[in-house]
Design goal:
Structural class: alpha+beta
Number of strands: 4
Oligomer: single chain
Distance between the termini: 84 Å
């Protein structure tokens, strides 16, 4: 029994030494965690002789944005529409005050506030004007109450759209997208 336990211990020990040797001598490609963002690019070439990494941050250095704007001319768009195509090149380190992609500038925030305020005021005015027609609509048999509610909601919606457009025009926000 002693020889069996001693033989088993020797085989068990040799197998562990062999396993450690296999793990140490294995050719492994290293794991490299590159800082990856919206404006980075990299290429990695790995093989048995080594590896090569080409990494570029802020790539591309000069970016281009293209915006198509359909602008209404005149009061309430009476003068027709004009299509404006603006193309702008910028870098990651552009000067302060210019519009940055995905971020609110002071002008854009001002335009959003103006449009929201105009929509709110216009909705109240539109609903009030439409409410003047409700006595006549409620006189319709069976569906008068539905027609009166629809007229009020329609007036509110149209008033909000008109109020928002007027506020954008008065604050010189026609070419700024507030959506």
């Amino acid at each position: 029994m002693r020889w069996f336990i001693a033989g088993f211990g020797i085989i068990f020990g040799l197998s562990h030494v062999a396993l450690i040797g296999l793990l140490v001598n294995r050719n492994q490609v290293p794991v490299i965690n590159l800082p990856v963002g919206d404006y980075t690019s990299y290429t990695v070439e790995a093989g048995t002789d080594g590896y090569k990494i080409d990494y570029a941050s802020n790539d591309p250095k000069v970016m281009t944005t293209k915006k198509d704007v359909d602008k209404s001319n005149g009061f309430f768009g009476i003068g027709g529409k004009t299509s404006i195509i603006s193309e702008k090149q910028y870098t990651m380190s552009q000067s302060e005050g210019e519009e940055t992609m995905g971020k609110l500038t002071a002008k854009k925030l001002e335009c959003i506030k103006a449009e929201g305020g105009g929509q709110s005021t216009g909705a109240v005015v539109g609903a009030s004007m439409a409410a003047a027609a409700t006595p006549a609509l409620t006189a319709i048999p069976f569906v008068g109450w539905v027609a009166a509610g629809w007229a009020t909601m329609f007036g509110q919606k149209q008033g909000a759209e008109v109020g928002g457009e007027i506020a954008k025009s008065l604050n010189d926000c026609d070419d700024i997208d507030t959506n």
